[in-house]
Design goal:
The chain has one domain. The protein is about 60% helix and about 0% strand.
């Protein structure tokens, strides 16, 4: 039988499973997670003209938050759209 080699990430997941670090999730909770992920799916593009100073400040805030600036902008738009 051929030996299966796991990537480093797969090995970490396997080790976590063996240590019991994951918990079962109810089907209701799993559905909530699925719906949440679907709501965050980015399926449209948008092109806008923005002041360069605003972009500079947005990039700085995104860097402080530890995310890419486009992800930061998308997150802000999502919060406003709610």
């Amino acid at each position: 039988m051929k030996e299966i080699r796991l990537t480093k990430e797969e090995k970490q997941i396997e080790d976590s499973l063996l240590r019991g670090e994951y918990a079962k999730v109810s089907s209701k909770k799993l559905e909530e997670i699925s719906q949440s992920l679907a709501a965050r799916k980015k399926d449209s593009t948008m092109t806008i003209r923005v002041n360069s100073e605003d972009i500079k400040k947005i990039r700085e805030k995104a860097a402080k938050a530890g995310v890419k600036y486009q992800t930061f902008i998308s997150s802000v738009l999502h919060q406003i759209a709610r």
